[in-house]
């Protein structure tokens, strides 16, 4: 286990290097002249050249990559081409918003999805199971902006229970903030619930039908006791790994949900920077999101190993 | 007193147990014997009133010490299970919760009985396990230790009925013997009526007071074990006894060429630091049947696969007719490859599920001709040629595998436990086919089995392996009737065959 | 037949029945939208691009079944026309991703050893990079076109398909029937291929659903079809500004996407279920 942790920790800098190279390479592929894009079609060639020099675009790419990565590591992330503000503060501020939204969604997702999965598993092949399984399957297939738009029409436009924007006014209390985040969080939750519930259900069914559950029942335990003492424990491992996978999907879903609910998060920022060809913002936002993904993948992997004694104590190597 | 009276069980209308009646007095043991599909496991589960979904008792009564088990309301059924029933299933590993320490699981069993957690150590001692096992997780125990833990849980209460459903399947013979000895040593202390469910008539006959033989869901014969084994009345029991190979039974004495066909010298294979084969040397003569026996982990399968050119690389040399063979089958030339073929253990995995039997055999023949002759050779009915493996029984699948092994007119066939997945009655026919074809073609077999009696019936010479080494080898008659190495003696004992030399000393 | 067999058979028949219903519903939805994508000019009551300043924001009903948008364009006709762009991107992307992934997965699974090790490490590295971010980066920077969308989506699918094909290949490779072929010296790939066919089919169906998902999302983000096109994702994006005035203009394309992806999901699930219960 310790060896595994060390091995995984060792891959972090390597992956960071790979992700940063990929991000940098992608931004290098920008067709056309960045300086020309920024200044617009009417600008003179002289001012375009001047801007190119000012941005350092005339130097070789390896030098610019080294400068950029060095700057990133020391906290100097440059200035936004279009907004003229320091990228560091901008990206971290937007990241904070996104983490709040993702956090609310995850806090909702984990108990709901795991609970539904357990319920479906314990009552498998009954009506409740069918509804949960088919419902989860359907919502998991529909893009989050589609569910989001339907939620908006029903709950914000028709019923007027929730606001249509996700950003609460400055200085709002936590409940108001949560009220604004409810619909975007819900569309993310609907996207991810099915997958988690299905995995938890499968683990629960296997556990309910397992010889050890049968043996416990034959020893005189009630069904409820068997579920509480044995099935629950055995369902935590699939639950944790499914939640880990879905946390990544949840972060990916931020881009379109933030756009739909006009929320100033890092997904919306990434998209805007890509459209504006605002390279410093684009690079920083992509790298920060890439790192966040990596941390989640790593965390899920470690959690999975800590939860299962068979893996933790080295009987299974996977 | 357990009384089963006219019990019938059906799965969604399909009757699988018909009108079965028997009774067992406390402290007595009753053996239920049957092959796969006989309904023995269903009967065992019905005794605890724990049939899988879809199953239902359609007629009859089960009475345990006056309690009508089938009529108990749920609450009382639970109380009855807690106080009077104990069940030990096959595959102990899966009967223990993988996420809970052994001690916690035993404590749970004790709590149901209203006994303190502190009794865990005493419970473990009863099944001859050290107290520190309580801190382990099930996967950290061997199969035998796991089964002991399950037995310990069964002993937490004072059961009136103990159901043992194939309690030793999947365990090596010596471990099986330890477990059964343990149960039998505790028998008096438990004082329960014991039902032992098994496919092994000889084993049940040795251990039980009474025996019931199940065939197609009916109890076709019942009586004291000694009588059923010595004077079976029902033809099925007789066939079952006849088809089970026995050490010491009449066997054909065949001559074979002594010129060596295949020689293995100093073969070594390792997984990491663990040596699976440690300097193994072996010769197989032309037309000779060499039986390879040993427990799981002894290296016998690794040796057989190495001969065929499968598995990992390692030291040592293999020669065929004096010419050295590359260790990997991929580097052997086509003509050599043809000369060594193999019959695998698992009938379900050994045939390509996407192909018909005809395609499987045609591809094995290469040039395509003679599929019908090949099938006939393995006594495979012609109408089976155009079906896929999923439609075949286990025995039929192994016959296809045998036919395929003969396709290239090999000089040596490596048979890796070819009959261990088959019922005794099917096994006999497959063994006969293997013997007949050997006699007809003069092929050599390297025949691996954990079943010493099967090896005795077929092999000319026997090689005994333990811990990656060959510990004893010689003519089958000598090795299996007058073994010298303690490991071989232990193997025979565990399988219930008292070696003759020893017998002279004891009696 | 033993008792366990009997229950198993019953359970299989029952689950098979359920999968058959799901499969028919799913296939019907896919078929319906495919027909619409091919024949919408014949089916649409109006020209989806025709503007009518006098008929802006008409509510559903009357001459316009699903109402009109801010330019007075017929929502129903635009919904029908929107099936085509999505179904121009998703199928080629799926085919390309599945073919590449299957080839890579088979190679890794059958060759094993160092080749397998290298392939898997590269796939791991690619998989750790979030697909959405990569997609946004590449489409935004490489420009918008059907080809770019197809390539980006196929690229994101390749590692996913490769992993499951490799896993299925590894399972088959260890089976005795493959070893029997190795012993006599035949092509192991030829033996394995028919047995991983179902895995590839399930993968292809699941990825097809994901491809629709991805194509719709890209259009919604403004990275797919140009604004103003009847594409579903783009329509939701364009019309969300008039959400309170004309909710039908976003609901129609949104429900169109939902019905197609749910149809595909039902099909994929039924195929997977049938294979697991076979």
Automatic annotation (TrEMBL), chain A:
Gene3D superfamilies: MetI-like (1.10.3720.10)
Coiled coil regions, renumbered to chain: none
Residues spanning the membrane: 99-122, 134-157, 177-197, 249-275, 281-304
InterPro entries per the UniProt record, alphabetical: BPD_transp_1_N, MetI-like, MetI-like_sf
CDD domains membership: TM_PBP2 (cd06261)
Any one cellular-component term (Gene Ontology): plasma membrane
Bilayer disposition of the protein: Multi-pass membrane protein
PROSITE patterns xrefs: ABC_TM1 (PS50928)
SUPFAM superfamilies linked to this entry: MetI-like
Keywords: Cell membrane, Membrane, Signal, Transmembrane, Transmembrane helix, Transport
Localisation: Cell membrane
Signal peptide span: 1-25
GO BP term, pick one: transmembrane transport
The keyword RNA-binding is assigned to this record: no
Keyword flag Membrane: yes
Residue intervals of the ABC transmembrane type-1 domain: 95-300
PANTHER family per UniProt: DIPEPTIDE TRANSPORT SYSTEM PERMEASE PROTEIN DPPB-RELATED, PEPTIDE ABC TRANSPORTER PERMEASE PROTEIN
Family to which the UniProt record says this protein belongs: Belongs to the binding-protein-dependent transport system permease family.
Name of the protein this chain belongs to: ABC transporter permease
Automatic annotation (TrEMBL), chain B:
Keywords: ATP-binding, Nucleotide-binding, Transport
Gene3D superfamilies in the cross-refs: P-loop containing nucleotide triphosphate hydrolases
Biological process, per Gene Ontology: peptide transport; transmembrane transport
Gene Ontology MF term list: ATP binding; ATP hydrolysis activity
Pfam families for the chain: ABC_tran, oligo_HPY
SMART domains xref list: AAA
Ranges for domain ABC transporter: 2-241, 262-492
Family: Belongs to the ABC transporter superfamily.
Name of the protein described by the UniProt record: ABC transporter ATP-binding protein
Organism: Acrocarpospora macrocephala
Automatic annotation (TrEMBL), chain C:
Record localization: Cell membrane
One Pfam family this sequence matches: BPD_transp_1
Signal peptide: none
Predominant cellular place of this UniProt entry's protein: membrane
Annotated membrane topology: Multi-pass membrane protein
GO terms under cellular component: plasma membrane
One example of a Gene Ontology biological process annotation: transmembrane transport
Domain ABC transmembrane type-1 per the UniProt entry, residue ranges: 83-268
Membrane-spanning residues: 21-43, 93-115, 122-142, 148-165, 208-225, 245-268
InterPro entries: BP-dependent_transpt_permease, MetI-like, MetI-like_sf
Keywords assigned by UniProt, alphabetized: Cell membrane, Membrane, Transmembrane, Transmembrane helix, Transport
Family according to the record: Belongs to the binding-protein-dependent transport system permease family.
Protein name from the UniProt record: Peptide ABC transporter permease
């Amino acid at each position: 286990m310790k060896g595994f942790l060390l091995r995984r920790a060792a891959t972090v800098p390597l992956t960071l290097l790979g992700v940063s190279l990929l991000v940098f390479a992608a931004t290098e592929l920008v067709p056309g002249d960045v300086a020309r894009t920024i200044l617009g079609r009417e600008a003179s060639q002289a001012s375009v050249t001047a801007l190119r020099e000012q941005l350092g675009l005339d130097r070789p790419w390896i030098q610019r990559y080294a400068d950029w990565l060095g700057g990133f590591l020391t906290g100097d992330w440059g200035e936004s081409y279009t907004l003229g503000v320091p990228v560091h503060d901008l990206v971290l501020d937007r990241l904070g918003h996104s983490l709040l939204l993702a956090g609310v969604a995850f806090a909702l997702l984990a108990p709901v999805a795991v609970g539904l999965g357990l319920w479906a598993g314990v009552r498998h092949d009954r009506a409740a199971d069918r509804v949960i399984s088919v419902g989860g399957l359907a919502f998991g297939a529909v893009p989050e902006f589609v569910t989001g738009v339907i939620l908006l029409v029903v709950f914000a436009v028709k019923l007027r229970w929730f606001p249509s924007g996700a950003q609460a006014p400055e200085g709002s209390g936590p409940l108001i903030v949560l009220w604004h985040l409810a619909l975007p969080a819900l569309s993310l939750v609907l996207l991810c619930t099915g997958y988690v519930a299905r995995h938890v259900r499968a683990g629960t069914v296997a556990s309910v039908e397992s010889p050890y559950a049968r043996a416990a029942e034959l020893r005189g335990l009630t069904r409820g006791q068997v579920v509480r003492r044995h099935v629950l424990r055995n369902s935590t491992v699939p639950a944790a790994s499914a939640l880990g996978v879905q946390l990544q999907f949840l972060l990916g879903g931020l881009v379109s949900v933030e756009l739909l609910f006009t929320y100033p998060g890092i997904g919306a920022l990434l998209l805007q920077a890509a459209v504006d060809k605002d390279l410093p913002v684009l690079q920083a936002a992509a790298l920060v999101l890439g790192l966040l993904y990596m941390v989640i993948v790593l965390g899920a992997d470690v959690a999975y190993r800590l939860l299962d004694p068979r893996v933790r104590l080295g009987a299974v190597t996977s | 007193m357990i009384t089963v009276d006219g019990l019938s069980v059906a799965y969604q209308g399909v009757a699988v147990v018909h009108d079965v009646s028997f009774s067992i007095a406390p402290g007595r043991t009753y053996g239920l014997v049957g092959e796969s599909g006989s309904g023995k496991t269903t009967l065992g589960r019905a005794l605890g009133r724990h049939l899988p979904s879809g199953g239902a008792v359609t007629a009859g009564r089960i009475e345990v010490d006056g309690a009508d088990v089938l009529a108990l309301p749920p609450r009382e059924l639970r109380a009855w299970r807690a106080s009077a029933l104990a069940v030990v299933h096959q595959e102990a590993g899966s009967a223990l919760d993988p996420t809970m320490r052994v001690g916690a699981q035993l404590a749970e069993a004790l709590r149901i009985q209203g006994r303190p957690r502190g009794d865990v150590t005493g419970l473990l001692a009863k099944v001859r396990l050290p107290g520190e096992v309580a801190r382990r997780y099930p996967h950290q125990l061997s199969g035998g230790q796991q089964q002991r833990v399950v037995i310990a849980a069964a002993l937490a209460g004072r059961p009136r009925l103990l159901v043992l459903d194939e309690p030793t399947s999947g365990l090596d013979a010596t471990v099986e013997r330890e477990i059964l000895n343990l149960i039998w040593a505790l028998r008096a202390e438990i004082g329960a009526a014991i039902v032992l469910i098994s496919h092994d008539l000889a084993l049940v006959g040795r251990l039980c007071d009474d025996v019931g033989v199940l065939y197609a869901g009916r109890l076709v014969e019942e009586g004291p074990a000694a009588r059923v084994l010595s004077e079976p009345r029902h033809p099925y029991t007789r066939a079952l006894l006849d088809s089970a190979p026995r050490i010491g039974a009449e066997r054909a004495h065949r001559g074979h060429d002594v010129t060596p066909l295949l020689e293995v010298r100093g073969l070594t294979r390792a997984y990491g630091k663990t040596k699976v084969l440690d300097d193994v040397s072996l010769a197989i003569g032309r037309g000779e049947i060499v039986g390879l026996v040993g427990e799981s982990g002894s290296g016998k399968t690794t040796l057989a696969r190495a001969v065929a050119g499968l598995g990992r690389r390692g030291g040592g040399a293999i020669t065929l007719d004096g010419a050295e063979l590359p260790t990997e089958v991929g580097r052997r030339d086509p003509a050599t490859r043809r000369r060594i073929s193999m019959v695998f253990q698992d009938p379900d995995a050994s045939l390509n599920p996407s192909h018909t039997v005809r395609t499987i055999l045609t591809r094995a023949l290469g040039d395509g001709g003679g599929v019908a002759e090949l099938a006939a050779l393995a006594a495979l009915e012609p109408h089976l040629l155009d079906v896929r493996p999923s439609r075949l029984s286990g025995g039929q699948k192994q016959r296809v595998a045998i036919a395929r092994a003969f396709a290239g007119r090999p000089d040596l066939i490596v048979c890796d436990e070819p009959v261990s997945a088959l019922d005794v009655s099917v096994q006999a026919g497959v063994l006969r086919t293997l013997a007949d074809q050997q006699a007809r073609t003069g092929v050599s077999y390297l025949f691996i089995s954990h079943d010493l009696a099967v090896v005795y019936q077929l092999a000319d010479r026997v090689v005994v392996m333990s811990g990656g080494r060959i510990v004893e080898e010689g003519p089958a008659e000598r090795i299996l009737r007058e073994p010298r190495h303690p490991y071989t003696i232990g193997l025979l004992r565990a399988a219930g065959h008292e070696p003759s030399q020893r017998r002279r000393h004891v009696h | 037949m033993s008792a366990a067999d009997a229950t198993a058979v019953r359970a299989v028949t029952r689950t098979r029945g359920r999968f058959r219903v799901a499969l028919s519903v799913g296939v019907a939805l896919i078929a319906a939208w495919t027909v619409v994508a091919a024949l919408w000019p014949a089916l649409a009551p109006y020209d989806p691009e025709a503007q009518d300043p006098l008929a802006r924001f008409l509510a559903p009903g009357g001459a316009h079944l699903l109402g009109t948008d801010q330019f007075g364009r017929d929502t129903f006709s635009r919904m029908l026309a929107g099936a085509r762009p999505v179904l121009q991107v998703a199928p080629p992307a799926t085919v390309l991703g599945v073919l590449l992934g299957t080839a890579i997965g088979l190679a890794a699974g059958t060759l094993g050893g160092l080749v397998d090790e290298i392939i898997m490490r590269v796939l791991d590295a690619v998989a750790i990079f979030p697909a959405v971010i990569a997609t946004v980066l590449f489409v935004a920077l490489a420009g918008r076109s059907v080809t770019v969308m197809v390539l980006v989506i196929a690229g994101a699918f390749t590692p996913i398909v490769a992993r499951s094909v490799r896993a299925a290949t590894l399972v088959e490779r260890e089976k005795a029937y493959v070893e029997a072929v190795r012993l006599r010296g035949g092509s192991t790939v030829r033996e394995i291929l028919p047995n991983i066919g179902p895995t590839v089919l399930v993968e292809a169906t699941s990825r097809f659903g994901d491809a629709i998902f991805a194509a719709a999302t890209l259009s919604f983000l403004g990275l797919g079809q140009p604004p103003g096109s009847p594409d579903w994702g783009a329509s939701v994006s364009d019309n969300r500004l008039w959400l309170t005035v004309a909710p039908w203009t976003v609901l129609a394309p949104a429900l169109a996407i939902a019905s197609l992806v749910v149809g595909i999901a039902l099909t994929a699930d039924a195929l997977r279920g049938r294979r697991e219960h076979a």
